[in-house]
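Methods — Computational structure assignment.
A single polypeptide chain was analysed. Its primary sequence is given first, followed by the predicted tertiary structure written as structure tokens.
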Amino acid sequence: MYKPLILIVLLLGSSFAVLDVSSIDVSVDEAEKEKPRVAINYIPFKEVATVIIDQKNDKVKISYSLMSKDKEDFRISDELETKILDTEKISTIIYTNTENCAPGIINDTCILVNIPFKQIESYSPLGEKVGFKEKQKVARETADSVIGDLNQALGINAEFHSIVAQTKADLTEIEGAVLSTVYTVKPTLPTKLLFNTLILENITEEIRFSGGFLNHAKELTKNENSIFTFSMSAEEKRILYSVHISYISSGKMGLNNFSPLDILTEDELNRSKLFVEGFYPLNSIVNVIIFSEEAQRVIGTNSAVIGSIANTDELQKNGWYFISSKPSSTPGIPDEINKLDLRYLFGRTNSVDSQELMLSIGPIVEDVTPIDVPQNDMSQNGGGCLIATAAFGSEMAPQVQFLREIRDNTVLQTESGISFMTGFNQFYYSFSPYIADYERENPAFKETVKLALTPLLTSLTLLQYADIDSESEMLGYGIGVILLNIGMYFVAPTVLVMKIRKLI
């Protein structure tokens, strides 16, 4: 039994949960030995929308994150950044209205200056062991050296409250125990006020007037239970500045045909206008993270699947990139808890709607090999051919590849074909996983399905010989094939049964 992920979940929505993808640049191509064909433009500012689903505890967290490694984007002075980096001991600085930011604090807005225990010497220059009180003194002196500049930069007057040892990752953004020097602002300030003040005083006009996820974050601040967090995470030579607006709700979340935008209560998600000119495929990300006790897999999407982010041709697609489907390695979460991490990249598009982000996720059935998981074989507006894959035994079976080629090279080449596949997928993935699972469990049923698919495969071969160059031709041939299959599967058997009954 693990404790609720409500704390750990906050960390996973932070910048470190997404920068594995969003910080990748063209240098990855060298490691993969793939020469990029298209230049990837660079802007240090990034935006992320995150949905985290904790199935065991029926918790869902949503958040919007705006981040940059350029102090100019958050109007942080050279003096403050230099002071933080030169201090070395400081790992993160957190400014938040999270409840209970430290023991004894309930209704205050907090600044926490976090120093890992390992950063404080355990022994004095004379070889004497340093006790806890001495370590607290070092932490206080270190934090006091920057709090004045922090107050000035943020336009507040936080005062010293306490020094506490804690391991709550959501309030430290690092692993292991830390000493947090806590400063408070009384009383707790609402998220809407904190966010509006930050974007007016600290975020540049260029970013502020470019909209994008910033506008969606601003809408979320209207929820009185939303949480504000501004963090500074020290790296070797620079600082990652991040602002997160998040909200946690309770309730069961179904994973069969759902859209992250429905959870975010948005009809459409628009990128920042900063990314309209040029190619910025990794600067806007929709991140979906799912924790469950049983391993999960994606069984259908309404968008393309990006097989490699080291290939710039792949990055031009708008679609999902899959990070993992395995037990979580996150500290505090037992090995038996599985984590599925999905990230939607916009490619060359500037917005995405609820239908395009539609996902269907289900448990991995025992004895299903990785080739049965349609992670790299799904195309735009299409998913894995689950029933055919289970019937013929592999995604690489000629029959399955034939269906995929018809879908990708014929149906999806026209607007009407794309519209058809979008509607068909919603219907198909509502039942196909269960039929595929039953095929694997029942060999006789599997052979029956294989036999039943033969007329369909035969009729679809007609499309290989058709020259489809327009929407009207696609509709004509499509309707013709549908009518042909209705005749083979329903009319012909009905006529045969009626004749047999007459003979009897």
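Note: Confidence is low (pLDDT under 50) at residues 1-36, 366-382.
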